Amino acid sequence: MTTNIKQMVQTKKLDRSKQPKPGKPKDVNFPKFFETSLDNGIMVLVIEDNRLPIVTSRFVFKSGSYLDFFSGSEKSGLASLTAELLVKGTAGMNATQVAQEIDFYGASLSSGSDPDASYVSSHSLKKYFDNIFDVMSDVILEPEFAEEEISRQKEQRMNSLLSMTDDGEYLAEKTFRRFVFGNTPYAFPTEGMLNTIDNISRNDIAEFYKKVYRPQNLIVAFVGAISPDEAMLKLNERFAKWKTNDYEQEKIILPEDSGKVKVLLSEKSNAVQSSLRLGHLGVPRNHPDFIPIQVLNTLFGGYFTSRINKNLREKNGYTYGARSNFIPYKHSGEFYISTEVKNDITANAIAEVLNELNIIRREPIPEEELQNVKNYVSGNFPLQLETPNAVASKVINLKFFGLEDDYYNKFIRNVNELSAQDIHDAANKYLHPDSLTISVAGNTVEIADSMKQFGDVKVVDDES
Predict the structure, then answer these.
(1) Which pLDDT tens digit goes with each residue over 417-453?
(2) Residue 156: how many CB atoms within 10 A of its CB?
(3) Residues contacting 13, CB < 8 A, separation 6+
(4) N or C: which end of the chain has fewer CB within 10 A?
(5) Which phi and psi angles does 269 have, rounded to 5°?
(6) Contact at 8 Å (CB) between 185 and 69?
(7) What is the pLDDT of residue 464?
(8) Non-local CB neighbours of 390 within 8 Å, separated by 6+ positions
(9) Are 63 and 229 in contact (CB under 8 A)?
(10) Which DSSP string do the residues of 87-150 spell out, in sequence order?
């Protein structure tokens, strides 16, 4: 019997001189979730997972810095300041007491905003969840917005913005967004600007809070060791009596593509390198071609062995790294390519990027290159579901952006069903070399002449 076992082991011995073939990518099993709504309009999502005694809760209000635009361009940063101030004091606790209460239980409580949404999130052990949820409810329902905290947050924000005025990447991005999105809400930075933060008053913050932080504008997700019954009990205790209000839905103002190349230079005194950001309008998150667009972007500039990184980093030695991205928003989106290079090769780097844009639109996509990208995207996707907060964000995105409930279950399958022709078609449809905004932050005196080959050059400042 012993001999037979040895023979079987020897028979199954692997030949380690040959690389094993990868198996066919499998779809992830995105957790099933409970869904309901309270009478006052709050949407509730619960994913029960009892493997660890931890509960994550995420409250997402469906408005963000997009609304700053309608408060006037001089109020840019209002959504962000309002969100940050939520956790800086309630009717019963000041900022220090809130922080001490959260720290005492070894939990986390955070708030913030992006262009489309504002949020409050918590993460705690199950046994302390009731305590943390009570604090979280207070910061949402009864924020104090104390003048002292407003002044402190405004000062911190302005100091942060002041420090970024010498950051080339920040300057290039800021100018890029301003000219790509024009006089529309996505043009303004979420964090605000030096000439707008000081304009924001407590009254502005209180009014913004009333407009955004209301039950019919809220999605709540619970993930972890909590049942739907437990979640509903807690919500009904604290939020069922929260009354709706009749604020109007946010207006939608869409940017338009200029249809021409714009070359914009931002001065960064004595800079020895240029920060580049090139691109144009993109697509919203619920766009039907979002998956092929993401695969296209990964191939072009979305991971280390992408085309532009190979070109600018490995072939030409212009930079340590270059990347591209399609950033989707609720109502629009942007596509950009970014890198940093020395002053004397700024124009060369831009020329190479333009060349790569034309090649990917003109020439067929090699099957092997596409397969490598599919493998990367398929392998990376499950890593995006590793934490409870990530899962909570994903399930909220389904409802926030109007995606199908099985979107994540089919994601890997949909990626791997794409053909080379699909990606080639996407490149021609969604990459527009003739409509690029080329934003460069650097030493304008040294680089201005070399930039004229790409179009009319304009030197901009914060007020342009």
Answers:
(1) 999 999 999 999 999 999 999 999 999 999 999 999 9
(2) 12
(3) none
(4) N
(5) -55, 135
(6) yes
(7) 40
(8) 384
(9) no
(10) TSBBSS-BHHHHHHHHHHTT-EEEEEE-SS-EEEEEEEEGGGHHHHHHHHHHHHHSB---HHHH
* Bridging pattern class, strands 322-328 and 273-281: unpaired
Read out DSSP for 55-72? EEEEEEES--GGGGGGG-
Please name which of 72, 271, 262 lies closest in space to residue 171, comparing C-alpha atoms.
271
Region 316-341: what's the mean pLDDT?
Answer: 97
Neighbours of 27 (CB within 10 A): 18
pTM of the model: 0.91
Tens of pLDDT, residues 333-386: 999 999 999 999 999 999 999 999 999 999 999 999 999 999 999 999 999 998
Q: How far is CA 365 from the centre of its chain?
A: 28
Note the helical H segments in 381-456: 388-400, 407-416, 420-430, 444-451
Confidence band, pLDDT 50/70/90 cuts, at residue 293: very high
Q: Tell me how far apart the alpha carbons of residues 339 and 349 are, in angstroms, rounded to a whole number.
A: 9
- What are the φ and ψ backbone dihedral angles of 59, each rounded to 5 degrees? -105, 120
Phi and psi dihedrals of 346, rounded to 5? -60, -50
